[in-house]
């Protein structure tokens, strides 16, 4: 049997397997995202899918599809996706946008064989703040307490989803 010991390691030492690339999303017109890459690096941000002046009704979803594909190409392959599972919306428009983005996301993931799962809002909030009904400021403060610098509550929520997925599920959907 060939020696598989890497230089600088003890014989028989086991190496940590590479981490899986996982994506966490807070879906909405302004979508928060957080990504853990193979090397364990966590990046995050927010992206707007607000319709432009002359956009047709489906352009927001086409831009979302293109954005997912670009994230997968640049940082992937994405191996699991976690998203905030919203059961109640403040308005009809927000509900329609969320449903369209979720349909687009799940179809994109199904087409590529990427597992995905929604996480209830209260579970995410409870995990990072201790309160299932934490407000936006508390979510931002919780992300900052963990060493992140979210620009808004959407990014903070995505960071919280990613941390929940890593810490409770090992990132596996």
List the topology elements.
Layout: E1 22-26, E2 30-36, E3 42-48, H1 59-75, E4 80-85, H2 92-112, E5 116-120, H3 121-129, H4 136-145, H5 153-169
Parallel strand pairs: 1-4, 4-5
Antiparallel strand pairs: 1-2, 2-3
Helix pairs in contact: 1-2, 3-5, 4-5
Give a description of the structure.
It is a single chain. The protein is α/β, with parallel strands linked by helices and 173 residues long. The protein has one domain (22-48, 55-169): Ribonuclease H-like superfamily/Ribonuclease H (Nucleotidyltransferase, domain 5), CATH 3.30.420.10. The chain is 43% helix and 17% strand. It is built from five helices and five strands; from the N terminus they run βββαβαβααα. The chain has helices at residues 59-75, 92-112, 121-129, 136-145, 153-169; strands at residues 22-26, 30-36, 42-48, 80-85, 116-120. It has a five-stranded mixed sheet with strand order 3-2-1-4-5. Helix 1 packs across helix 2, helix 3 (121-129) packs across helix 5 and helix 4 packs across helix 5. It is globular and about 40 Å long. The two termini are 36 Å apart. Residues 1-9 have low confidence and may be disordered.
CATH superfamily: Ribonuclease H-like superfamily/Ribonuclease H
Note the run of SSEs as H and E.
EEEHEHEHHH
Mean pLDDT across all amino acids: 89
How does the major sheet shape up? 5 strands, mixed
Beta-strand residue fraction: 15-25%
* CATH architecture classification name: 2-Layer Sandwich
Enumerate the strands of the largest sheet in spatial order, edge to edge or round the barrel.
3-2-1-4-5
CATH topology type? Nucleotidyltransferase, domain 5
What percent of the residues sit in helical stretches (DSSP H or I)? 40-55%
Number of helical elements: 5
- N/C terminus separation: 36 Å
Report the radius of gyration as a whole number of Å: 18 Å
Number of strands: 5
Poorly predicted runs of 5 or more residues: 1-9
* Shape assignment: globular
Structural class: alpha/beta
CATH class: Alpha Beta
| Count of discrete domains | 1
């Amino acid at each position: 049997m060939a020696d598989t010991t890497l230089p600088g390691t003890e014989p028989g030492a086991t190496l940590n397997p590479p981490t899986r690339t996982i994506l966490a999303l807070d879906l909405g017109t302004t979508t928060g995202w957080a990504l853990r890459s193979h090397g364990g690096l966590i990046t995050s941000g927010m992206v707007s899918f607000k319709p432009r002046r002359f956009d047709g009704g489906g352009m927001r979803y086409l831009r979302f599809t293109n954005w997912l594909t670009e994230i997968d190409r640049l940082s992937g392959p994405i191996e699991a996706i976690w998203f905030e599972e919203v059961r109640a919306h403040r308005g009809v428009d927000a509900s329609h946008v969320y449903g369209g983005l979720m349909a687009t996301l799940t179809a994109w993931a199904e087409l590529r064989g990427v597992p995905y799962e929604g996480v209830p809002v209260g579970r995410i909030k409870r995990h990072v703040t201790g309160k299932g009904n934490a407000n936006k400021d508390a979510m931002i403060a919780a992300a900052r307490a963990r060493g992140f610098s979210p620009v808004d509550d959407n990014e903070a929520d995505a960071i919280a989803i990613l941390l929940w997925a890593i810490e409770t599920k090992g990132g596996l959907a």
